[in-house]
Amino acid sequence: MVLKTANEFTGGADRELYAALAAGACVITANNRLARHLRLGYAHSLRAAGRLVWETPDVLPWQAFVQRSAEAARARGKSPPPLTEAQEHWLWSELVTEYDPGFLCQDRAFAAQAADAWQLLADYALPLPEAGGDRESEIFVALAQGFTRRLAALGRDDAAHDPARVTEAIGAGRVAIGAEIIWVGFERLIPAQEAVKAACVARGASCTVLPLPNRGGEGDARIFATAAEELTAALVWARERITAPGDGRYALVVADLAAQRRRILRRAHEILVSCEPDGVVPYEISLGAALSEAPVVAAARRIWQLAGGALAAGEAAALMQSPFIHEATAEHSGRALRAYEMLTGTAEVDLTAVARGLGGGAPMAHAGFARLAGIVRRWPRRASASTWAGLLMGALTAVGWPGAATREDYQAVAAVHEVLESFATLDVVAGGLSYGKVLTFVTGMLGDRVFQPAGGDARLQILGPLEAIGLTFDGLWVMNLHDRVWPAVRPPHPLLPLSFQRAHRLPHAFVEDDIRYAGRVLEDLAHAAPETILSCARHDASGPLRPSRALIERAAREAPAPAFMDRFARAFAARGGLESYPGRAAPLDGTRAGPFGAGLLAAQAACPFRAMAQYRLRADPLDAPGCGLAPAVRGAIVHKVMEIWFGEFPEPRAWQALDSSTRLRRIAETVAAAQAAAADDYARFPAAFMGLEARRMERLLAEFLEREEARPAFQVVGREKEVTLRCGPLMVRGRIDRVDRVGECAVLIDYKTGRMPVVDWTTDRPEHPQLLFYAAAEGPEVAGIAYAGLSVRDRGYKAWARNADLLPGTTVVADWDQVTAAWPALVARLAADFAAGTAAVDPLEKACDYCGRESFCRIDEDGGDGDDE
Questions:
Q1: Which pTM was predicted?
Q2: Which of 77, 95, 237, 318 is in the most buried spot, having the most CB atoms within 10 Å?
Q3: Which ranges of 678-808 does DSSP label H, i.e. alpha helix?
Q4: Does the pLDDT of residue 293 top 80, yes or no?
Q5: Beta strands in 467-599 (DSSP E)
């Protein structure tokens, strides 16, 4: 296929447009990206013509044009500037908080929605809707009226209505305009833009709205089997073009870029960066992440949170090891050790505890946090926004932030400074503020701000559909065009009455409008380059997908899977051969015959290698730090609750004799006794956490007792009963959670605080054979075995027994005596295999899920299916 060659820098931008710019025309673009694209293209054309210097062209996006014109009009009239974005958001947030805190539980989100509705009314030159709508609309009208009153009291304007003021100023001659104004990249002009354009025409200016470019592409439609194949094919296509000679410009347009950004970045790094020398990133991606997600900003946020009170232990540990505080590299080992100690010692920490914890192993970090603690003690209870902005910056400086920041990190650092400078302007609209309110608002500003590190002019742009409108390329691929995301249909605005939105035909008021608009956008993209490809997948991680109507109408063809291996896969394929070892260890001698725990039998049944690694080599995975009690500890405490209760009340009639209040009191006392026995496990948690755990276990026990009362009469004759049995050459011991006597029969019960397993006792390697071991140890009087569920997800019994009336939910085993007679031999064979050294890597299904020894047995050495979705 021979492709047309575009202008080597801009992809064929109109030469007449450059001539107009040279003549002094003003070009208004639909977005910042297109303005930058045209400025760079104009500069390149002049350099190609031999020019060394030139006047800066008057190319600016719509919002910048409005701001410049509004500032000129205010300068002529000596009017004060409008409120900044931060000041306006503060006013909306305050209005929402004051309105009805009980109703508006998400104040910040509601304030943002209200500001958006206010902007929408301004863009379409509409008044506030009349009363009589739904609850949200009535709230918005009240908030908007309050916002108007606040503006009047401050004597300031809002930015949303600046286009209307610019229109009036142009008409009155208070703003100078050029002889020619060109609008570029607009699918359609909104009413505010039409009004400005009409005012310019009335002043005698020549106003032209350029049609969107048509580079001759037709949109080759393709359908891939999986989303992973589609993304790989698109990136391989891009790599082939950007590595070819020339300066062509290419784009990958993703229909749902915001949702797919992380996945695309990960795969783009594998496919595109590996082909560049020195790891240069040959692409730019739009829709940056929130500023608060940048690592250096996350460190700043943690410092401020720690200064304000307690910080979760995990967050504090991350901060202690952060490279963005002073001397992080020199003290890395000491800080890591102190962070681990903190994780295992408490659930949350304050500033003093962090400073104290760093003492001895990390003197520089200790000094920095101690210095911060001294600064915080001198902070005022309330202060102005500008004062707090300085104090927040001082807190960061105290611990040496931003430490070992990279060049890209310093762009995020500069953005933090801009956020604090913007926050400092709140003095105009806010009085004295508490630190809690300051921290909440500044954290929100960091989360709201989209951060995209500035880069060079990469040959590949990864964009969303609306960002690509008006741009031209040498090649363009639009992906993810399945019917879940395309056409992009959005709901009407939630704070404006639907009838009002439809009467004025606002965006998203009618589904058919969104569908038609999406169709026009896709057509524009299909013509934006000489070579254009449109694609979707039939399946992704969430399930089956269907092609959008646009692809069906273009007779999309099935596309083959791309033949691509990233550098890691290539290196893995080229690795040397591995030595194979027989799956057998040396047999155990007589001096190492136990006793072993019954868990050995479960490990041997699940995977012989796991049993050998765990019980002979002691190769256990590292403990993973987590929030709250570890599942094993929580299970042990619940077991203790059951042991104490059934020790005092071995029969249902014993607790049924209690009145309801006494029963609840005794339940609470039982839980308290179990918690007291686990005092060391609770030591690192606050009292409130211990109280929540107590309420949970009290509810769990009360519900379990209700189910127990529905059983036939029984008596608990054993609690945490220890048993020992010789299994082949080994002695094995275990502990039966509970033994019940039902008539003349014994029933063995194993508590499960997680999911109750689905087991098949008839196989040669049954999962979880501990119950079989207990039954073999107790002898022939056992007539039933059962799991008792003690979790919200799994309640009741899962039982196997000789008779159906022993337990509810029983699976009757007709030949019970014959089946149970085989269990001693089964557990003896498992023990004998372990003693003989059988250690093959032969896991049962799902046995690897929670093993944690995969890097030891290397079961995944041959890799998976490669689809990381």
A1: 0.69
A2: 95
A3: 679-682, 687-709, 770-778
A4: yes
A5: 475-479, 531-537, 539-540, 543-544, 557-558, 596-597
